[in-house]
Specification:
alpha/beta; two-stranded antiparallel ribbon; 5 helices; about 35% strand
């Protein structure tokens, strides 16, 4: 049911950010407060019986529901940001994209070694960014408690790429 609610408001943007790509725009969801609450509740239901010590959201759309999910689970929120955006001491992870490379960072005191971290982002495509985030968390001694995404693009096989990293992968609306 939640998948149909999400799909009913997601907007397709053809040729963004480059020709041939159909961008799944989640911003119309933000105009629907009841749907936003339903999304957070759906994620929380999937992880309520799991040990989650913190939720890490990937910049920037991973912040939108990641922070709310952390609040619902009663755990801290950890922002994983693009390089140069965090003011304190950071740990960095460089990773390759289909069109170049990128760097993400997290504060070195964001969580303690051994804590179980749920990684959240808005969309699972090829799995490159979320794999980099998971590697960053594990290099800092964290344990991956699972992954959560509003949307998944199954043809790009991101789930297959991240499956070895965690037992629990939640995608609310699969395309």
């Amino acid at each position: 049911m939640i998948d149909q609610q999400i799909k009913s408001v997601i907007r397709d943007i053809p040729d963004f950010p480059k020709p041939g790509i159909v961008f799944k725009d989640i911003t119309p969801i933000l105009k629907e407060p009841v749907l936003c609450e339903n999304i957070v509740n759906a994620f929380a239901a999937h992880f309520q019986n799991s040990t989650v010590d913190a939720v890490a959201g990937i910049e920037s759309r991973g912040f939108l529901f990641g922070l709310q999910l952390a609040g619902k689970l009663g755990v801290p929120f950890v922002p994983i940001r693009k390089a140069g955006k965090l003011p304190y001491t950071v740990k960095k992870m460089e990773y390759d994209l289909e069109y170049g490379s990128a760097v993400i960072e997290v504060h070195t005191d964001a969580f303690k070694s051994g804590q179980r971290i749920l990684i959240h982002d808005d969309l699972l495509a090829t799995g490159g960014t979320v794999t980099a985030a998971a590697n960053l968390v594990t290099q800092m001694g964290g344990v991956i408690a699972g992954f959560s995404f509003i949307v998944g693009l199954s043809a790009l096989e991101g789930r297959k790429k991240i499956a070895p990293l965690a037992d629990k992968i939640v995608v609310l609306a699969e395309y």
